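Q: What would this chain look like folded?
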Amino acid sequence: MIAQDVQELKNRFTISHFIVLILPFLAIGLITKLPEKPEVRLVKDRHCFNTCKLRIVETIPANISFGEDTVFPLSTFRAWKSLILNAQEELYVAAYKSSLQGKHVLGDSAQYYSQEGDTIYNTLMSVGKSRKVNVRMVENYPPKDKGDNADGVILENFGAVTRKSIDISEYMGRGKMHSKFLVADRKSFYLGSANLDWRSLNQKMELGVLVEDCECLGEDMHNIFHVLWDLKNKGIESNEALKVKAAYNKEKPLEIQVQGEKAQVYIATSPKELNNPRRTWDLDAIVSEIDAAKKFIDIHVMDYFPLFIYRNPRVHFANIDDAIRRAVVRGVKIRFLAAALHYPDIGTRFLKSLESLNGFHANGTMEVKIFKVPRTNIESIVINRERRTHNKFMVTESAGIIGTSNWSGDYFMGGTTGAAIVIRQTGEKRPFVDELK
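A: My prediction, written as structure tokens:
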């Protein structure tokens, strides 16, 4: 009897000991995503080549006239509404601000200006409160201007979204959460210059892309979102999403079809400290495509400074400026549009410096223009101040880059988060490049 009891105790000890040993490994397996086998990734890539759809999305400010034959891309408003309404399980939003309802700024006169923003707000509220779609939002904090975080807070209070506000400076020492994208069901997304703001739907000039039915890039964007989402509670060191290797980058892009022609695509992000392993830094992507250009480069950005403009004292930031000057020396034709909105006296000096290189090479040009969106006839200081180009993109004869960052050192090396999509077409026909230029 005693021997039987001893043996039973031994068996219990052995089982308990085994459980204690094996549990940590099971936990690691649950937390850590196992790397995908090459053959599985190859099958997914082939599937995405056939299913992925990519379209340019644009906001044209109200009351701007064009020729009768002008064909406009899909509007930002329609792209967002489609993404939100077609989401089946989850919708993840990264927002620098959430000011969709004009009433936060304009009061009673909002009804004349923010119909599109109000519609997006109501659509988010309806979809989120239905409980059928898990809506999450990461948003910059603290807000810069009046009403910047107002609708995110309201949507959260009504239970329509689960929201985290992020002060990036807590983790990076400086910077803002400046990423701008919406991801639906890990397969469709918007990425571009537009804020979650009524002004980005009818007053500012904005450019982005709508990618649909593209599981490969959708999963990538989903993980980029989770890097930000997990940052709030886990920081950098314990951020599991940050450890997931990027599937596509500058050296290994995803091949899809854009308007019937082959294209190579990948997502690049900033800052480097928050980039997944193998993720291309968006600054490297920009400089790389400028250096690769042989014929032309068209650039359209709101602000351009070869400086860390928001530091005190200011510091030189040469990366992009030097690349543009190298292109001038090679004889590339360059056209540069900028708003010169912030610190215009400083910005225009550097732009004039670039413009002075026009004619340096017999085959090249360096043209610079300050682009101002025409004001409305309505006497509203608030409205007229907001009518501006807010674009952040460039195009060469073989590639286009559409991003969320202004071109100064603060946005690439100053802790601020940003993202860009890089699309390359090198075949005989390049419809995406032709549409973007």
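Residues 1-10, 12-34 have pLDDT under 50 and may be disordered.
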